[in-house]
Amino acid sequence: MPALCVLTGAGISAESGIPTFRGAQSGLWAKYDPTQLATPEGFRANPTLVWRWYQWRRSVVAEADPNAGHIAIADLEIALCERAPTSDDAHRPFTLITQNVDGLHRKAGSSDPVEFHGNLWENHCDACERAAGRVALDIEEPPACPACGGLIRPSVVWFGETISERAIQRALQAVQSCSICLVVGTSSLVYPAAALPQVALEAGAEVIEVNPEATPLTPLVSRSIRGTAGEVLPGLVAELIATFA
Ligand code: OAD
Prior knowledge:
By secondary structure, this protein is α/β, with parallel strands linked by helices. The chain is about 35% helix and about 15% strand.
């Protein structure tokens, strides 16, 4: 059974009303400084500022619903996994890797996405790294860790931090063994995630990019579809399901 892998970025959630990072007008990094808000040094310099920014992002995401793009990807997983059910990572017919921390893929029904940059809702202690679970949206200061007194921070991967070993392993397994790799809504600028489609290409996969704009990946891919995730994915997914039938 051939396998299919999907890599998504902020663009998949744009039609759910969640801002991307690098849009010239509305991108988060056009308005906010990532060195202040998305680095461990930024958190240690001003924990309240960073905590409140993530609480604001959580409140935006809490109001958002998955769009037609997320739902099409969940439908693709259901169709492929019904045909070749397995619990073995090495033989999974479908893997979703997302750089997004918003949880909308799970909300749409995707069962077990590789959350490459972590999860916006989870927290852990900045000092002892103990998991701290979820925190109510009205808490305006980073809570103290009950174990060591350190400050609790969101469990997202910040610039300069390493991706979890488990996420790297699952992602590499998927891109090295897939026959089709679908890349949706990412600027393909942030590594190591941006290297994953290149690994798929080197392993002989067909790489299909869906994005309204060209990216550094565009000249390398087998097929580039210029459009939004919500417009393109329902039809493309129907085509892929038919291909894999
Ligand atoms: P970016 O904001 O860099 O890129 C978003 C991409 O989505 C762009 O290429 C847009 O053209 C495209 N796009 C916009 N609207 C779209 C739509 N409706 N459908 C499809 N595509 C659309 O976001 P990422 O590539 O995800 O990391 O950024 C990667 C990482 O950089 C993020 O995970 C985050 C950020 O800093 C961390 O916070 C660690």
